[in-house]
Here is the input.
Amino acid sequence: MSISERARTFAALHIPGNPLHLVNVWDAGSAQAVETAGAKAIATGSWAVAAAQGHHDGQSLPLDLMLAISSRITSATALPVTLDFEGGYADTPEDLARNTERLLTTGAVGLNFEDQVIGGTGLHPIPAQATRIAVVRRVADTTGIPLFINARCDLFFQSGPAAHKGQIEEALRRAEAYAEAGASGFFTPGLSDPKLIERLAAACPLPLNIMTGRESPIASELANAGVARISHGPAPYLAAMSFVTAEARGHLSTA
Here is the structure.
């Protein structure tokens, strides 16, 4: 299957009411484990990828290393792979275009691209972020890859649940602008209220991606709310490391 075919297959998996489940991975080994479990696609999570290399989230993992890990993952699985691109490791359109070109050489067919100001505060203004998304789309179009750009909106991640109801309208304005700029999906980590998720999914012009957490609705509730994609963020990595710690403690206690 060509990269373009994998990209189209991946996009078709985003069905409101029948969401794609993505168990986020951090290296080639975890990608193969998730594939063996029956996954339909592979997704990285920036927090886990960075932590597995001893780095913090927020683009502290060097871009060259991130791309090398990404290439190892895409080479280790036949499934479509989407990568967490954070903020594109770039402040200028020129650097963003260059980094996007490099990311596409890894064999990825999708990426997460977030609107928070990494290394700063708050979110990029809507016009600025729309322009950034348009740059990523333009680069992808020149390669002929129908890249799935999952536009991450950090409104809800940067505030408490009490503020979320009042942020839905801004989230929808961002979704509209991001869709017009060429985004393929809309990702709202931090949003967990079932009624707000349903409201957002119904009005959003893009397939909605929700990240699960302790306060999140269960998968069937998210499906009923019209969600098209469910991510698990760093939870799989944290569970794996907890298991390794427990195993090590057990062995070391008998040494």
User: Anything to note?
Assistant: The mean pLDDT is 97. The CA atoms of residues 10 and 80 lie 6 Å apart. The longest strand covers residues 110-114. The chain has eleven helices and eight strands.
